Amino acid sequence: MELSVLLIKALIIVAVFGVTLLIATYSTYAERKVAAFIQDRVGPNRAGPMGLLQPLADAVKLFFKEEFVPANANKFLFIAGPSLAMLTACMSSAVIPFGNTLYINGEYIPVQAIEVNIGILYIFGVVALGVYGIMIGGWASNNKFSLLGAIRAASQNISYELAMGMSIIALLVLSGSLSLRVMAEQQGQDLFGISGMNWNIFYQPLGFLIFLVCAFAETNRVPFDLPECETELVGGYHTEYSSMGMGLYLFAEYVNIFVASAVMATLYFGGYNFPFMYDLGLPHNVVTILGTVVLFVKILLFIFFFMWVRWTLPRFRYDQLMNLGWKILIPLSILNVVLTAGTILLKDEFFK
């Protein structure tokens, strides 16, 4: 591979990492603006024009605040907890295809940091490690409220990852691959004569609904934010944190929201594919750039949905959270797998 191609690949990796952090940063600003709109308030409007510099002001404030470590806390683990949460959050976006391919110097370069043929397993594995950051921080704080929040996070993740995994199995039966890029390419095929519209949402509406609900639980968002339930646990697993320790926990949540939105857009809504993408007669690179823009529009819409739900729905009780996961979502996800496999078998028999 030529040096220029390697440099372009390195630029794509840096760009993916930078865009992930940028969107997560301004998600904090968007969250406050959405909350203000729903509650008939103005929201941030002091730092910069229309408050656009508010995320930078928050970052400076957290960076310069005193780092407080409780006297009886395990200092090493206390620092390692938020660091691990942030590390795993940033690693998740590496395998997401943010565009098709760019044709440069005779090479087709995928707009993706890393392409592995088990991309969805990679994301599940990394996301599953993220809860250890919460558990370590909650336990190391030597605070009963923090520990209760960490226990809630662990049990919540176990409960909802099962249903989420089963919803993905139905999708894997359809696509026959664990690669996110392969799944995205398959959704670029024709549907009813329209190119780029063969989206999985048309084949897996129940699977998408299950995945969406589980995504809220995995990111600890309302109505599933029991690990940081302030009415019961003060601040949950980050009660004892201040300065950048708390900042990393809060920022990791927004990175996880971005990753969850990108995964849902890629798995169910065509990823970088859009209607009539191959019927416009545009150059390959132009179509790729348009596809990347379309994917980010889909991601931003999902992020807005996360925020909309937070400021309109009440929090579940913990028993309701567990009942929904074990008694409703897991049976539904198993039924979805059976229906999907049965439909494929009947289709194969019919078209023999």
Automatic annotation (TrEMBL):
Catalytic activity: a quinone + NADH + 5 H(+)(in) = a quinol + NAD(+) + 4 H(+)(out)
Main subcellular location of this protein, as a coarse class: membrane
UniProt EC number: 7.1.1.-
Entry GO CC: plasma membrane
GO BP terms in the entry: aerobic respiration
Transmembrane segments: 6-29, 76-99, 119-141, 162-181, 201-217, 248-269, 289-308, 328-346
Signal peptide feature range: none
InterPro entries, A to Z: NADH_UbQ_OxRdtase_su1/FPO, NADH_UbQ_OxRdtase_su1_CS
Topology with respect to the bilayer: Multi-pass membrane protein
Protein name: NADH-quinone oxidoreductase subunit H
Organism listed in the record: Rufibacter quisquiliarum
